[in-house]
Amino acid sequence: MININKQLRKYFILISIISVVFITIVSNLSMNYFFANYIKESRSRDDLKLIQYIEQLYNENEVLDSRSLMNIMHYSYSEGIEVKIKNMNNEIIWESGRPNTMMHGMMSRMMGNRFYPSTKVSYKDYPMMYRGQQVATIVIGRPQSIIGTAEDRNFVYTINGVYIAAFLFSIILASILSLHVSKKFLRPIYRIKENAKLIENEKYKQLLNVETNTLELNDLSLSIKELAEKLEYQDALRKRLTSDIAHELRTPLATLQSHIEAFMDGIWEPTQERLMSIHDEITRLTKLIKDLSDLSKIESEEIKLNMENVNLSALLNNVVDNFEPLFISKDIKIIKDIQHNVEMMGDADRLNQIFINLLSNAYKYTNEKGSVTTKLTEYNGKISIVIEDTGVGIAKEDIVHIFERFYRGDASRSRETGGAGIGLTITKALIEAHDGTIKIESEIGKGTRVSVTFPLLR
After folding, report:
1. Contacts (Cβ under 8 Å, ≥6 apart) of 320
2. Which secondary-structure segment (H or E) carries 144?
3. Could you report the average pLDDT of every consecutive run of 10 residues in the chain (458 residues)?
4. Which domains does the chain carry?
5. Largest Cα–Cα distance of the chain, in whole Å?
6. Cβ atoms within 10 Å, residue 375
7. pTM value?
8. What 8-state DSSP symbol labels residue 87?
9. DSSP class of residue 332?
């Protein structure tokens, strides 16, 4: 394994080397191709000018005298070319200079030899015209390579020297930049790593602050913090759950123990009323264990829904009708506004359990002379169920916790009304298992409105 610092340095240097080498190769290829074409065209134009100049000299005297030939020689040495003149029999009658001639040596000392002995020369023949007829052939020799002269070679050496310097400079710069970039990215990464270690050790409140202007690292840091907050909350919830379960079990068990001990000691007679009290506590324990079992299955996603086409209107009407005697006994007015023949895909037993839990809560927390309204409508591809009561209501600070296990607000969820405080937790889980949502709106002293929405899946 290689740390990120070394990897960044390696990649930076590698990219710099590849870039400089690529530029060097492309530049040299361009020089040898595009620049070579330019030189060839330029030489062709210069050759035509020289031919025109020689023809002009010949036209003036109908012969090339020594002065004219000297001018041509000067021109050839200044341009770094060879000039030969052939007669119509293809015999060389004059050439600008040979290495063994005195004139060539003198001109070399005066002007510098533009040809090197090892330089390959390319010759090209041109007709020399006089009054529309060819009188001779002019041969012009130039270096085959575009860097045949000393100046050209010095230019190429200079350019490649610049590339070498740029190559070395880019490696140094890449090393420096890799250190800077690695520090910029590694510092927050190391902080995030330390925060992960703190979370592992359950030190949720000791997380380090991560400062970075990199979007991805900032998002990662925020995700780590959110994870710590959720884990801290779950840890607190787990501890509270253990305490709540112990408390819920302690009360009925203590009642049972005291009753049985009183029977055993002969203090109490096992009357029908006292046996009913014991039976109620056993029923309460049984219901609590069943609710906990259901909640465990639902939260572990072990629950299996028996999906079928359910007539939700008939199901809800039946549940409300079953509750009607209870509402009448408490002098609570029940109002039904249920649309006919609303159907959906779902588990009838679980949907029945949802409505029973919601109506049970409405019954428990609605005072006498109050009212409970049940409404079912279908619109825009959705099914809406609203159960609204005029009961005691729920405080705003309690609503955000209302679906938590064993949570009961002081005003609206007192132990005197019964229940273990996990009914709404189960209800919410069952609604979400049907891809639905639940929303609770409430105000102390004015009542509670529960809204359930299901997708219309037939």
Report:
1. 334, 336, 338, 359, 374
2. none
3. 67 79 79 74 87 85 82 82 89 70 40 50 88 89 69 74 81 78 77 87 83 80 87 77 72 81 84 83 79 69 80 93 89 92 90 91 90 92 93 84 66 45 81 91 90 84
4. 4-165 (3.30.450.20), 215-299 (1.10.287.130), 308-455 (3.30.565.10)
5. 160
6. 16
7. 0.48
8. -
9. -
